[in-house]
Amino acid sequence: MPALSTEAIERFLARPLVARIATAGPTVRPVWYLWEDGAFWILTGPWSRLPEHVRRDPAVAIVVDVCDLATGEAVQVIAKGRAELLPFDTARGFRKLSRYLGTDEAAWDLRFGRYLRDDPEKKGTRWLRVKPASLTGSDLSFAVTKSAEGDGAEPG
Q1: For the chain, which residues make up each domain, given as ranges?
Q2: Is 81 within 8 Å of 133 (Cβ atoms)?
Q3: Which residue from 41, 111, 137, 154 could staple onto 9, CB 3.0 to 4.6 Å apart?
Q4: How many angstroms separate the CA atoms of 38 and 131, rounded?
């Protein structure tokens, strides 16, 4: 399995993909993230048990992957590190949410706009930042053949 270069990892993590973060417990949950300044930034707050888990044990693992059977793209990036809770800032919040929802905030579901506009101190909105101690990526992509796409014939 070919390892990804640092540049390839950066390009891959710049895509608006879903990551899964694992905490002690074990607990695994899907999250939207922002990859910025060599770290994963994940929006969290009292609506989630994530802050509670990382306060108890900040060791986490994150995987971001794709497996597209139609194109053969199969790539994974795995990160391990310690999570820290940091104050929320609106500018970074907009950058993160616009990756997934587009830049027209008026078109967003109202709850996402509230993350940006409500007082983060009152609402308890925080950033969970993971600056990986370990970051590896692998390209497991494969060539798609006619038989892999299916020819429409019934089996057997």
Answers
A1: 6-143
A2: yes
A3: 137
A4: 6
SS3 state of residue 120: helix
Question: What is the rounded distance in angstroms from the CA atom of residue 111 to the CA atom of residue 33?
Answer: 17
Rounded-to-integer distance, Cα 114 and Cα 59, Å: 29
- Amino acid identity of residue 129, one-letter, is R
Q: What is the pLDDT of residue 154?
A: 47
Q: Look up the CATH number of domain 6-143.
A: 2.30.110.10
Instruction: Provide the token pair at 27.
Output: 């607990």
Is the four-CA dihedral 20, 43, 91, 96 of positive or negative sign?
A: positive
Q: How much is the pTM?
A: 0.83
- The whole-number average pLDDT for the span 84-110 is 95
The per-residue pLDDT for 137 is 96
Mind listing the pLDDT tens digit for each residue in 12-68? 999 999 999 988 877 899 999 999 999 999 999 998 999 999 999 999 999 999 999
Name the CA dihedral angle for 141, 145, 148, 152, rounded to a multiple of 10 degrees: 150
Label residue 153 by pLDDT band (50, 70, 90): very low
Going by C-alpha positions, the residue among 16, 25, 13 that lies closest to residue 135 is 13
